[in-house]
Amino acid sequence: MEKKQLMETIERLRSEMVELAEIKGSMLDDHVIAISQKLDRFLTYYQMRMQLGGKNTVGTISFSKAV
């Protein structure tokens, strides 16, 4: 995944999480937590990539868990 695409995905997930939390009235809603966990996986992947100089050789992280 390209850095630009990765950053767009992170920002989209962050926006979705905040919007849903506002709608549900809680950060503890199951769907909000699921998005937060998915966002965490993308942020971890991004951080690992940046530590490796932006190379795409981080390994396998599953991003496909349903939200």
What do you see in this structure?
Pfam families: SpoOE-like (PF09388). This is Aspartyl-phosphate phosphatase Spo0E family protein. It comes from Marinicrinis lubricantis. By secondary structure, this protein is mainly α. It has one domain. The two termini are 20 Å apart.
Number of discrete helical segments: 2
- Cα(first) to Cα(last) distance is 20 Å
Number of strands: 0
Assembly level: single chain
The average pLDDT value, as a whole number, equals: 87
Protein name: Aspartyl-phosphate phosphatase Spo0E family protein
Summarize the structure.
The protein is mainly alpha-helical and about 70 residues long. The chain contains two helices and no strands.
Topology (SSEs and partners):
Elements: H1 3-24, H2 30-51
Helix pairs in contact: 1-2
Highlighted features:
2 helices, about 70 residues, mainly alpha
